[in-house]
Amino acid sequence: MAMLIILFIAILSFSPAAIGEEFIREGWPGEGTPRLAAKNNELVLHKTPDSTSGSRQLKYKTGWLIVWDQSKVITKKSAMWTVKKEINKGSCGTLSPGHKVEFLQFEAEGWGTFKVGDKICSLKATRGSDFDKEDEWPEVEWWVRVLDHTNRLLAGYWLMCNK
After folding, report:
1. CA–CA separation, 160 vs 142, rounded Å?
2. Helix, strand or coil for residue 54?
3. Which residues face 82 on adjacent strands?
């Protein structure tokens, strides 16, 4: 009986319902390596790339460059899109009209990360010509792990870049 309970807990911990709707991609939105500068004189840094994690304020000069060594784009809520015409422009395979896909996040140059069935793939697609327009956009957060002026980690603190 104990083994059955352990197995049940293990299955729940890996199910999509237990994980939620988050999808995490190492990298950043758009093309090229971004240069980040402070928009004001205080940065709010979080212990993990999660706005509910512990945070601290860091005094900083407006306009100073922010040095970072890791970047994550986290999908908080995906969007369901409906294929409008046949698409075969990426690693998702051929998608037929009426097919539902889960849009996870933008990549760059018109490419996005999608979930098609159980497969995560990249697809070049244009909303409006390739997909029905009534669908929503995914909600994402972009986080970078900040270094101090000597390139040391600030105790592993993360800054949300899309606020």
Report:
1. 6
2. coil
3. 100
